[in-house]
Amino acid sequence: MSETQDPKKEAFQRKCSIIISLIASMLLVNNLGSQNAAGSASFLNAAAINTYAFYQAKNIRQNDMNLAAQTLDGIANTSVPLANEAAKKALREQAEVLRSKALSYESEPVSGEGKKELLAKAKEAEKARDQAMEKGPYFDFAGLLLQLSIILISVVLITERRTLYVSGMLAAGVGTFLSLDGFFLFLRIPFLS
Predict the structure, then answer these.
(1) Quick check: is 191 in a domain?
(2) b/e code 166-177 from CB counts within 10 Å (16+ = b)
(3) Is residue 130 part of a domain?
(4) In the chain, N or C terminus with fewer CB closer than 10 Å?
(5) Cβ proximity of 118 and 59 under 8 Å
(6) Number of domains composing the chain
(7) Domain range for residue 146?
(8) What count of other Cβ atoms lies within 10 Å of the Cβ of residue 15?
């Protein structure tokens, strides 16, 4: 005598199987978001570091030019007769050229490589990096809850405990919410930020 499956039980098992598949799909999307956020954070961190290094190089070069200009002015303005007035005038002109070049390092809107523009780019990259890093915990907790929901609903298939089904669905709902929040950060949760 073969056992016949109860139609309600069979429908419930089918429903659980489909739900597990959907949760697993959401888990895959969540993992993709997690990897993208981590990759973006690393890339943006490197971009910020490189931009700050370029800014510092410009700053050092600017300081060197200003120091050289001051040195030339000091030589030209000395009371000790080093050279004729034409030579002193040439030293002062060279000092002015150096000061002018040093001043141009402050802002270069055309190339976007002035100190002002570089500092703004570096801060922008830091802000974007921080936002990408902020997404990580949302994806981590979402992944944990989605995996837990798959386990709970799988146990339901074996034990037929409806309370585990409700717990699994609740975990899946919260996990899906956290995953979506990880992508869009529409709700900042204090213990995750």
Answers:
(1) no
(2) ebbbebbebbbe
(3) yes
(4) N
(5) no
(6) 1
(7) 7-184
(8) 12
Of 105, 115, 109, residue with least CA distance to 62? 105
In a domain, 54, yes or no: yes
Residue with tokens 């994806």: 139
Tens of each residue's pLDDT in the chain, 193 residues = 445 678 988 999 999 999 999 999 999 999 999 999 999 999 999 999 999 999 999 999 999 999 999 999 988 888 766 667 888 888 899 999 999 999 999 999 999 999 999 999 999 999 999 999 999 999 999 999 999 999 999 999 999 888 999 999 999 999 999 999 999 999 999 988 7
- Token representation of residue 12: 């419930």
What CA–CA distance (Å, rounded) separates 31 from 143?
Answer: 7
